[in-house]
Design brief:
single chain; alpha+beta; two-stranded antiparallel sheet; 14 helices; 35% helix; globular
Amino acid sequence: MASAAALTCLAPVAAAADTASRPGTPPRPVAPAACDAARGAVTDSLDVLVRRHGIPGAAAEVADARCGRWSAARGVADLDTDRPMAAKDRLRIGSVSKTFTATVVLQLAAQGRIGLDDPVEHHLPGLIRGNGYDGRTITVRELLQHTSGLPDYVEAIADRPVNEWRFRHFEPRELIAAALKMPHPEKKWHYATTNTAVAGLIVEKVTGRGVEAEVNRRILEPLGLRDTYWPGDRTRIKGPHSRSYFIESEKPDGTPGPRVDGTEWNVTFGGAGGALISTPGDVNRFFGALFGGKLLPARWLAEMKRTVPADPDRLWPGARYGLGLIASPLECGGMWWGHGGTVPGGHRALGAIGPGGRTVSLALNQVPDTDRAEQDFRAVVDSALCAPGRTQHLKETP
């Protein structure tokens, strides 16, 4: 596999753009040596994913007031052409979509149009009934927090041969109905895209418009997130984008199958909880705006940040879950807030904001396939949000 490296410092450009948009704002100072060290740490951690774990390409964009906006990348975006990976490329961000949908629900709650403790039955009579599931006992808060007790329909779909469902259309109600036939989860906290599908239908019932239209109107357009969009049934990604890859099922002898291009995919199965396409830059702007108070009043952002312990088997040790938000400990202390996302075609994304307001967004074009690779993926967040030298993970990795 050919490998290419790219490291781009965008701080001077970002400073000039900010100054032009806000007359009278003094120009941002030249990035100090600490910023160069941070870039090096992030680049090194991306290199681990490519060289040690065989990920074709990995990219990150980081933004903060001190160092501006800059990106780093390793590996290739396209194995056929050896085109270098780049943080400006679009990708499928999977479950990062859940935070966008949850933000719209919280906006409607702030307007008094949805109560977080409303039962699902209040908005969608009869939708959740049967097999011991009852919408009269499940609240909107529990949907967003994944404590509803609903199973994850994605697991039922993923058990089927890929070519049976890769290019077909799914309706939210069809997916929810499939979930209700599944066994009940064993634990109270159970991450399930089913929850966000139901939340999306509540948004549609309350506003009279689909959740996609509400995300566009309330988030994407006001923030100018021009690289973020819902693809609908379109299987191709518009504009510059990285290819994505996945490993086919094991062969009968137990050896891994071949690597397959999974870029083209109908992601209606993800819907409100997993269908968005975006870029690391747009994801950073979203989390910066959310935690900067541009999308929710402080009271409702605080509601979003009320967490419960997450099942480490479905996320990772130490993770907690709020309303469409993950909180995870940093190696240098404190927590990062954000969300990760995975799609079966191979894209893996994560957006996070640290205690000081620095944001980082990651993009891979193949999903890590071992626990160590997943740990090293999350370690990129530590390298971006912690001061250089204050992380141990990569040093301790054999």
